[in-house]
Design a protein that fits this description.
Number of helices: 13
Distance between the termini: 55 Å
Largest sheet: 8 strands, mixed
CATH class of the largest domain: Alpha Beta
Strand order of the largest sheet: 3-2-1-4-5-6-7-8
Radius of gyration: 20 Å
Structural class: alpha/beta
Shape: globular
Number of domains: 2
Strand content: 15-25%
């Protein structure tokens, strides 16, 4: 073992041992979402020496993120750098010995199986159940372990899903919550300590799995309310025999018909539009067309176009966030008008 390697991880090696540290160095993890949870997960795992981190996120850094999303700074927000890109840059400064891959993309049923194919473990850093059910379908189908996590206000929850051994997400939550029925960071707020509480458990579980310490997993739905000083564990024994996903092998979210995706971004007065087919858009050419119609700002990852009423943030993969409306039909019309079909 290299001297530099031993020095960097010396305190962790005292706890895990040299062999297990080497196992971490040869491991790979996919983090879906680089917001508050995903950013904290990524930093912990980079410092722990996970050999390869794959980061996937669709969004860019905003000033409202800086209160709790630890990998980003004011310059990232000013330049609206995609979170996956900004995270990669910071992680490479923290640990230059690992490989960090950043993917600016909207995780959907056309790409999730490709994203999980070459990793050992998947961590949930998302903020919505639509994507979590998609991760659950893909991981159960392909036998990949994944770790669910959620946090809002001062409350958080996490569970580890081991396909064919533990209950999956749909065993516990058969139906996706109705839109607008669940609290979000934008509607009820959040404090940073709950982020670290949940990600600490998620990352500890990941380290146990990657080093083969399966007997140390908490095997529960763990719920924490830091404001009320409450910690609860709902012990998980066996999968729900009626589960449509892990028992009946009906991967409804994964096998949904491909269609254009539009979602209201709660609390942001904005709608995200993703086209029917993911494709690379030439931002330079688009900028030339739009600069006559309004204010255009651009970097290598995205283009911002502002009119009197709306602001469009357009990504390389042809996705766009239309700010200034929560009307999906209107957002689609604006997309068609300024970006095209």
């Amino acid at each position: 073992m290299r001297t530099e390697f031993t020095d960097r991880y010396s305190r962790q090696i005292l706890f895990l041992g040299r062999e297990k540290q080497e196992r971490l160095a040869n491991s790979s993890i996919l983090i879906v979402g680089c917001g508050a949870l995903g950013a904290a997960q990524a930093e912990m795992l980079a410092r722990a020496g996970i050999g390869r981190l794959k980061l996937v996120d669709r969004d860019f850094v905003e000033f409202s993120n800086l209160q709790r999303q630890i990998l980003y700074d004011e310059k990232d927000a000013e330049e609206r750098i995609p979170k996956a890109v900004a995270a990669k840059r910071k992680l490479e400064l923290i640990n230059s010995e690992i490989t960090v891959e950043s993917i600016v993309a909207d995780v959907n049923n056309s790409n999730i199986e490709r994203f999980i194919a070459d990793v050992d473990l998947v961590l949930d850093g998302t903020d919505n159940f639509q994507t979590r059910y998609l991760i659950n379908d893909a991981c159960v189908k392909h036998g990949k372990i994944w770790i669910y996590g959620a946090a809002v206000s001062a409350y958080g929850a996490t569970m580890t899903v081991i396909p064919n051994q533990t209950p999956c997400l749909r065993c516990l939550f058969d139906q996706m919550p109705d839109a607008g029925s669940s609290p979000t960071c934008d509607t009820v707020g959040i404090i940073q300590p709950i982020i670290f509480a949940i990600t600490s458990i998620q990352v500890a579980e990941a380290l146990k799995i990657l080093t083969g310490e399966f007997d140390k997993l908490h095997r529960s739905l763990m719920q924490i309310d830091l404001w009320q000083n409450e910690w609860r564990k709902l012990n998980l024994k066996s999968p729900n025999k009626d589960c449509p996903c892990c028992q009946q092998k009906k991967f409804e979210f994964l096998e949904a018909e491909t269609k254009d995706f539009a979602s209201v971004l709660c609390g942001r007065n904005a709608v995200q539009i993703a086209p029917l087919k993911t494709s690379e858009i030439n931002l330079n050419d688009l900028a030339k067309k739009l600069e006559k119609l309004g204010s255009v700002k651009q970097n290598e990852f995205l283009l911002r176009f502002k009119t009197d009423e709306f602001e469009l943030t357009i990504f390389n993969d042809a996705r766009a966030i239309i700010r200034g409306t929560e009307d999906v039909a209107l957002a689609r019309s604006i997309y068609s008008k300024f970006v095209g079909n």
